[in-house]
Amino acid sequence: MESLGVRKGAWAQEEDVLLRKCIEKYGEGKWHLVPLRAGLNRCRKSCRLRWLNYLKPDIRRGEFALDEVDLMIRLHNLLGNRRTANDVKNYWHGHHLKKKVQFQEEGEINPKHILKPKGAYRKPLDRRNCNTDKGTHGWYGRTNPGR
After folding, report:
1. Residues 6 or more apart from 43 whose CB is under 8 A from it?
2. SS3 for 142?
């Protein structure tokens, strides 16, 4: 297959500046238009990934805080590796954020309720009282008690 002549490899600082200006002017989305609008000789996927993973101003980079590490460990102990990171990302961007925006526009619900589903953050049960005879429920016990 013949290359379309798009640039590959490391991004130059000038390219980052062009991409930032384009996103500031037109906003995120419509990634198929970004290379043309920004004047970049890059594919749309490269532009999207560069923005989301490196240039977006509200992403946190560097070391994880202790509370973040603790939360990840507790959630992994609770849920394990049932889903791939890509599945989680697709759900978050495809369903979860759309519902959050919809509720905010309608003014029906506080967006914090979307981020914390009912019963999602339960206090741990005493290990001696943990119901493990019907499967591995771990430290947090059954997720749907009484069902």
Report:
1. 4, 6, 35
2. coil
